Amino acid sequence: MAYTPIKISAAAQKVVLKTASGLELINKITVDSKPLKSSAGTFQLVVEGTSNALFDLQVQRSSDSRYYNFDTRTFASTYSNFSRLKRITPGSYAIQVPSASSGDTYEVQVYTNPAYNTEIDNDNNRYFAKVTKKQFKSTTITLIVSGSGGAIQNTTIGTLTSSVIDDTSNTIKMVDKQLSMQASIVDLGFFITDTEENSNIGTWGQKAMYWETGNYTASGGGTNSTSLTLTSVDGLVVGMQVSSINSVYQSELRAITAINRDTNTVTLDGNETWSDTHVILFRAYGPELINEAIGIKLSVDSTVVKLSKITKTVRTAITTDTATINLNGTTGVGAGARVRIRGLLPAVDPNLVTISAVTPVDLTNGSIVITGGEILGSERTVRVGTRVHIDGCSNEVFLTGNVNFTRFPSANQNIYIDANKILTAGTDSA
User: Fold this and answer.
1) Domain encompassing residue 176
2) Which of 170, 303, 366, 419 could link 160 by a cystine bridge, Cβ 3.0 to 4.6 Å?
3) Number of domains in the chain
4) How far is CA 217 from CA 201, 231, 232, 257, 281, in A?
5) Is the pTM of this model over 0.70?
6) CATH number of the domain that residue 109 is part of
7) Model confidence over 322-356: pLDDT tens digits?
């Protein structure tokens, strides 16, 4: 039934009117303007009119089409007379809203009856009017540490549930959270990217935070091109980066510099290659872009990244002066790591003695070649089982930090910490 809503206001004053014809009038229906949070709460309904106006009231919610029962103060699955408040003079009514984590829209319907000499001051419909009240739904943010390329597996840190309007600040805390690594002997360890020296401890920042979109589909192919046409560009913003094409991670992470929403075309800051119908994923890095893309406000503090110390042992005795050390396993060791071992003679500074080569990578065998010094085995034999300490590189990584959320999205979202922004994968040669 088409109608024109009558006056709706956030504030109400009692009005006493009476028409010349003797009719009683409902002249204002008000639902308070304050947003209804996801948790249980109330909203106030005000019906105003002449002193003897009579009306029926009905409240229905959208999620299941149930009607509010004013006797039981619950929503009933079937309509009945008890679902209506009968023959009530105008006044103020606080309606209790049960918890609804999914969110709802409540439709308030007001009826009058000519038999009771009451009409609604509404030109289109004198016997019916409605107003609506929206309850925001709860949504969940899941924090995940990710690592592209498969070496670092997704590690879920924690979840938070709130709503876009709830006045709460929420924090997911990490204390030495160990990252999950790929179970493989082909492992040259990781270095901390943001550290002043080759160290086992460093920091990470908010630029490692990102949100990744759903699937976008290429409309037509491109070869070494900066102009990418998609079937849709809805939800994309300038600054987001191409993270995956046809399920292949794009380490260059080409950024969007312009969006033409008429042609569904984005301009990238570097060349990419794709085929028609390829699925494209985009990432928004940093708090500003994440907020612009999906409305999540976040910050980070107290961030630390640690590498566990690696200790290997000598596999074959060293009896000559050499730069090569045979180890009982080289897993987790990468070129560039520092070495400490009994019998080491540094050329300049012990802290400058590093690994120049690892061959092969193996759980029980393998060797390393050092630079910046040598082992004086001719002066004193380095026995089998002698400990070799590796600093600055490890296959065991731990994150600490607080990720603070002050605004939630309208839908469930995953927020990621990109381990590739924090760690640098080791190599077998410097």
Assistant:
1) 140-305+396-425
2) 170
3) 3
4) 41, 6, 8, 19, 9
5) yes
6) 2.60.40.10
7) 999 999 999 999 999 999 999 999 999 988 999 99
